[in-house]
RNA sequence: GGGCCUAUAGCUCAGUUGGCUAGAGCGCACGCCUGAUAAGCGUGAGGUCGUUAGUUCAAUUCUAACUAGGCCCA
């Protein structure tokens, strides 16, 4: 029985725990970062460095963060951290969007009826408190993900100076002539006499009249009619469930690509869409024959006679015309419907709305003046019947919008609203031109936002709400002229800076007028103040004004915006428009979008589906690093999937990386880089080979950071750890590390590689795995070392020898063949571990033969076998199980033994032992 | 219904301007090791490249339609 030689080996040794215990360790590291002021230290270290301007899009201050937030903010954090390691100064100032309807609704829900009794200031205070509460909650949730930034000083759209900036920006838009007041249909409750937002609408079953109405073609234009109609006096038939809107009818919409048919009955000719003809005939009981067909586009701008007023109704084309119900000829009243309104704008129609806030027709409306709209339904139907315009009248039950407060049915009613004109000063065209100058990542983002800006209607800015920044305009009571006095606006903005946007509601805003101000138009002295507030999209849309350019570290324009792809319609869009108005330039140079988070099956995450994974549960179960690793694994430009299964996969990948790091640290035990580092040119060739491979990895990873292609980094780092290091290099050098003399050149050479790789690799992964990088950094350099997060990325650091790389790539191929042969032998039960084998390689190819001959001495090490013989011949690889005794120290089966004390050891071990004593 | 986008092994990704038997890692299966041990190593099985048509000598790659999914409109 030979003695135990374990003590004579240099086995890996470290306190770096194998078990990450992220759920408890991460919060400790975060606390440490805060305590030592890590972010301040980094900013200090980059004091004179070039600034990378990055602007945070503000999440809405409502509710807990969800996975989408986590994805977004972790991506941003990887950007921030990687740019810092590229040597830039990056000031990340997080923001929150604080105003708006969802918070108002939440406050109303929270406080119940009590809220209705509150005056506007008390109500706004409740809203403010609510937003603050959720900012605090979200801030903690974000910090838990390891996000680096100025969390003590975020920007908040409800901050007084921010509110003042919103007002100032709006005033600029107004004074530059972009802002006008126009009509727009909104959901309206005639009982509460108020506009309702979509979120306040409840859909319930409702019984409505259903009528088919004929609109005769204008006979005077017969020449322009489709051929099929020319011989007849034809009528287009519309279908509606709101007969009371017929007095406001100004148009009939057709689908340009639908086929329409002329149906001849015994006394008239009706036009309906071919696809809906059958339903039409069945519903109305009309019978007739098809006399001809034509496309909807032939009806563009033809005129029809209104069934009971002496006026025309124009034919227009619209994509929204459906072939699922109705007749394919859609009654259009621009004052009473969203789509009707859009079409009305497009065709230059009046936004006619002869209905007041109580739901009564205005007094001067012929035939129905003063009547309630719902009660007027039957009278309209009767009138249609009298005019022989009614084909059929019945009742339908369908889902219809109701007021969530009083539960009464709503109507669509045009109301006066403030708009930003897309045409004023060529805003639309200039914006489109600006889009071309921005780099969109991925590239299709350009098409998406371009199409939206190209086709969007004017921006409706006003909301009949309380929690927001008021539209600070006054109109003359006498002549209606809007006050454009600079001094007045300055006073308003100044007051807001001091006391917040609420000042507008405190007293009569006329008080902000200069003394003795009179209307320049009529000399009037009495003014009325607007009570509406601004769309919250305007708030966040001017963040570039309120946040950028006020601090040298956060300049305007921003280098980068990074948000979900829904923001092409949202923040990117509104920011662009306001910036074009205010500065005639986009506020960003490049824009990155990421996709949405879906479940493991690629389905949307929803409470009702039970597939929601809250970030807090991920950090609780796995830790932020695992979530961050997931973010870096997926190609975020497309939608991304997350499931517990996927997290598990990432937890294992994390363990692989962590164990590799741990092993490197463990084997560097006792290694003093100052004294022990072997210069590259004196290293063993295999060690240099690994260094070359790692050397190639560095620029690849740094470039991927620069390109924001994080999933490439994930793959490259993980593969380097598993393939190059763990299964190849580390496995091979075990013998050298453990069994060679502690300070032998063989061992120090390998340790030098481990050291270089570890230090540089930690920096490369620090943006993705900041906690782990920091933890390992501490084991290398001690707890008080300069933080890894203020380091810079490594650069390629050795001159590669391509011949070495080529030779070793080839040797690795041979190694694979040898492994297959060993496995076969193992399956046969001839050997267990590979050290029990001798390998005989026979090759014919001259080049390969000389290569193997050249390396014959170290091949046992490379293949992790005891002996290797290289022959010229045809048999590729023969595995010979070795029966002989193994060296009790290194477990190799040597060709010959050497006496060392009481035992026989292999020559190498004998020498090492002899030097020990 | 419209605009934009996506679809390659169970999962996450590669696949240069169309051209060898479509790759990797993970997972899985089987095995080895017990001196990285709640670790490490080896081997292997998995793909009609969403479907269908078209262009071409040749299509995962180009075109169209369809299907499924996502975002934004309506």
SSE order and pairing:
Elements: H1 22-36, H2 38-45, H3 67-85, E1 95-96, H4 101-111, H5 120-144, E2 155-156, H6 160-175, E3 179-189, E4 194-196, E5 201-216, E6 234-240, E7 251-254, E8 259-264, E9 269-273, H7 277-284, E10 289-295, E11 303-305, E12 312-317, E13 329-332, H8 338-346, H9 373-386, E14 390-403, E15 411-420, H10 427-436, E16 439-441, H11 444-455, E17 459-460, E18 462-463, E19 474-476, H12 486-499, H13 503-506, E20 527-529, E21 533-534, H14 536-541, H15 543-546, E22 558-564, H16 571-583, E23 588-594, E24 597-598, H17 615-621, H18 624-633, E25 640-641, H19 644-667, H20 673-676, H21 685-706, H22 710-739, H23 745-765, H24 770-781, H25 802-827, E26 837-843, H26 846-855, H27 859-863, E27 867-872, E28 877-881, E29 898-900, E30 903-905, H28 907-916
Helix pairs in contact: 4-5, 6-12, 10-11, 10-16, 18-19, 18-22, 19-22, 19-23, 19-24, 21-22, 21-23, 22-23, 23-24
The chain binds one RNA strand of 74 nucleotides through helix 8, helix 11, helix 19, helix 22 and helix 25.
């Amino acid at each position: 029985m030979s003695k135990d030689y374990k003590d004579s080996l240099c086995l890996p040794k470290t306190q770096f725990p194998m078990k990450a215990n992220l759920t408890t360790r991460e919060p400790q590291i975060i606390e440490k970062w805060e305590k030592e002021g890590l972010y301040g230290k980094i900013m200090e270290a980059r004091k004179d460095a070039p600034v990378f301007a990055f602007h945070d899009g503000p999440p809405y201050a409502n509710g807990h963060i969800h996975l989408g937030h986590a994805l977004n903010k972790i991506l941003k954090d990887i950007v921030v951290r990687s740019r810092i390691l590229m040597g830039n100064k990056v000031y990340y100032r997080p923001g929150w969007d604080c105003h708006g309807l969802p918070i108002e609704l939440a406050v109303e829900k929270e406080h119940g009826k009590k809220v209705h009794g509150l005056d506007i200031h008390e109500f706004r205070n409740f809203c403010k408190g609510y937003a603050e509460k959720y900012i605090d909650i979200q801030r903690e949730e974000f910090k838990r993900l390891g996000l680096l930034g100025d969390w003590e000083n975020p920007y908040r759209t409800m901050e007084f100076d921010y509110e003042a900036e919103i007002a100032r920006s709006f005033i600029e838009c107004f004074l530059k002539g972009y802002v006008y007041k126009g009509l727009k249909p909104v959901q309206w409750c005639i009982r509460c006499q108020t506009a309702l937002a979509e979120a306040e609408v409840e859909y319930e079953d409702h019984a409505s009249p259903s009528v088919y109405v004929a609109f005769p073609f204008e006979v005077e234009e017969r020449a322009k009619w489709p051929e099929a109609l020319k011989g007849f006096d034809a009528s287009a038939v519309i279908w509606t469930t709101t007969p009371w809107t017929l007095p406001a009818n100004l148009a009939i919409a057709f689908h340009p690509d639908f086929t329409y048919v002329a149906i001849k009955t015994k006394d008239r000719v009706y036009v309906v869409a071919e696809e809906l003809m059958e339903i039409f005939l069945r519903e109305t009981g009309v019978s007739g024959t098809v006399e001809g067909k034509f496309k909807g586009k032939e009806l563009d701008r033809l005129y029809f006679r209104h069934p009971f007023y002496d006026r025309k109704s124009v034919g227009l084309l619209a994509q929204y015309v459906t072939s699922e119900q109705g007749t394919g000829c859609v009654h259009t009243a621009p004052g009473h419907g969203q789509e009707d309104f859009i079409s009305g704008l497009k065709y230059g129609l009046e936004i006619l709305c002869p209905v007041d806030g109580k739901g009564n027709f205005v007094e001067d409306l012929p035939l129905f003046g003063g009547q309630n709209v719902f009660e007027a339904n039957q009278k309209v139907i009767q009138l249609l019947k009298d005019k022989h315009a009614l084909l059929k009248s019945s009742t339908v039950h369908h889902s219809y919008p109701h007021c969530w407060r009083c539960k009464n049915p709503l109507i669509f009613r045009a109301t006066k609203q403030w708009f930003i004109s897309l045409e004023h000063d060529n805003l639309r065209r200039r914006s489109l031109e600006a889009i071309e100058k921005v780099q969109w990542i991925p590239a299709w983002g350009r098409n998406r936002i371009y199409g939206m800006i190209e086709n969007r209607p004017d921006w409706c800015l006003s909301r009949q709400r309380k929690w927001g920044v008021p539209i600070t305009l006054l109109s003359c009571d006498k002549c209606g002229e809007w006050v454009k006095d600079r001094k007045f606006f300055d006073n308003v903005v100044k007051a807001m800076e001091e006391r917040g946007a609420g000042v507008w509601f405190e007293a009569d805003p006329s008080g902000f007028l200069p003394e003795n101000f009179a209307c320049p138009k009529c000399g009037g002295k009495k003014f009325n103040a607007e009570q509406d507030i601004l769309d919250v999209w305007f708030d966040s849309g001017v963040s570039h004004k309120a946040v950028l350019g006020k601090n040298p570290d956060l300049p305007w324009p921003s280098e980068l915006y990074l948000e979900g792809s829904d923001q092409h319609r949202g923040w990117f869009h509104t920011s662009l428009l306001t910036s074009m108005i205010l500065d005639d330039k986009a506020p960003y140079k490049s824009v990155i979008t990421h996709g949405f988070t879906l479940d493991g099956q690629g389905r949307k995450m929803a409470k009702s589906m039970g597939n929601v994974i809250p970030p807090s549960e991920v950090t609780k179960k796995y830790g932020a690093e695992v979530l961050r690793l997931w973010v870096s694994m997926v190609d975020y430009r497309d939608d991304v999937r997350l499931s517990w299964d996927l997290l598990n996969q990432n937890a294992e990948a994390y363990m692989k990386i962590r164990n590799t790091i741990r092993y490197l640290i463990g084997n560097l035990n006792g290694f003093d880089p100052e004294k022990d580092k072997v210069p590259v040119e004196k290293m063993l060739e295999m060690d240099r080979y690994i260094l070359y491979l790692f050397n190639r990895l560095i620029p690849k990873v740094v470039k991927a950071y620069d390109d924001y292609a994080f999933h490439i980094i994930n793959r490259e780092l993980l593969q380097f750890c598993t393939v190059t290091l763990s299964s190849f290099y580390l496995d091979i050098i075990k013998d050298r590390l453990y069994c060679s003399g502690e300070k032998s050149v063989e061992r120090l050479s390998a340790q030098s590689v481990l050291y270089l790789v570890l230090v540089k690799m930690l920096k490369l992964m620090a943006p993705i795995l900041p906690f782990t990088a920091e933890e390992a950094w501490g084991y290398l350099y001690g707890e008080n070392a300069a933080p890894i997060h203020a380091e810079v990325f490594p650069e390629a650091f050795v001159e590669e020898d391509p011949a070495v790389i080529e030779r070793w790539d080839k040797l690795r191929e041979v190694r694979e063949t040898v492994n297959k042969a060993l496995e076969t032998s193992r399956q046969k039960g001839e050997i267990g571990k590979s050290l029990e084998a001798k390998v005989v390689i026979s090759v014919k190819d001259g080049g390969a033969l000389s290569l193997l001959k050249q390396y014959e001495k170290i091949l046992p090490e490379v293949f992790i076998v005891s002996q290797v013989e290289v022959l010229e011949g045809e048999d590729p690889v023969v595995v010979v199980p070795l029966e002989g005794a193994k060296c009790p120290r290194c477990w190799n089966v040597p060709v010959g033994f050497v006496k060392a004390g009481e035992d026989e050891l292999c020559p190498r071990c004998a020498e090492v032992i002899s030097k020990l004593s």
